[in-house]
Amino acid sequence: MNKRIIEGIEVEASSGNVFADLGLPGADKLQIKSGLTVEIAKAIRERGLTQAEAAKRMSLTQPKVSSLLRGEFSNFSERKLMDCLNRLGYDIEIRVRETAEPIGHLVLTHA
């Protein structure tokens, strides 16, 4: 990583995945889950839904929605988070392509 000093404070440029920067296992999946959770929160806010209304639409309990909106997404699978977005009126497109690297990566893009 690229380290430098700014106003006497050492800073590092991010790799683009904070979970990888922290050395967490499953960083790619954590980044995907985080991105999906951000989209869910945005959809709930834009639609003016209460947590109870969002829970009903997403087939969750209100406490689970509350946890999710606080960023507690580790107990949710990527599939469940995608299902929640579908139930909030979002389409999800999965694109598979070959990479030059020996191992591919998961990437969440926004349209």
- Please count the beta strands (DSSP E, at least 2 residues each): 2
- Our measurement of the CA-to-CA distance between the termini, rounded to an integer number of angstroms, reads 29 Å
What percentage of residues falls in helices of 4 or more residues?
Answer: 40-55%
The helix-strand sequence is EEHHHHH
Q: Please report which band the strand proportion falls in: under 5%, 5-15%, 15-25%, 25-35%, 35-45% or over 45%.
A: 5-15%
Radius of gyration: 17 Å
Note poorly predicted spans. Answer: none
Name the structural class.
mainly alpha
General form? globular
Number of helices: 5
Strand order of the largest sheet: 1-2
**Overall mean pLDDT:** 90
Sheet with the most strands, sense and barrel status: 2 strands, antiparallel
Structure description:
With 111 residues, this protein is mostly helical. 46% of the residues lie in helices and 7% in strands. The protein is built from 5 helices and 2 strands, in the order E-E-H-H-H-H-H. The protein has helices at residues 18-21, 27-47, 51-58, 62-69, 78-87, and strands spanning 3-6, 9-12. The two termini are 29 Å apart. The model has no long low-confidence stretch (mean pLDDT 90).
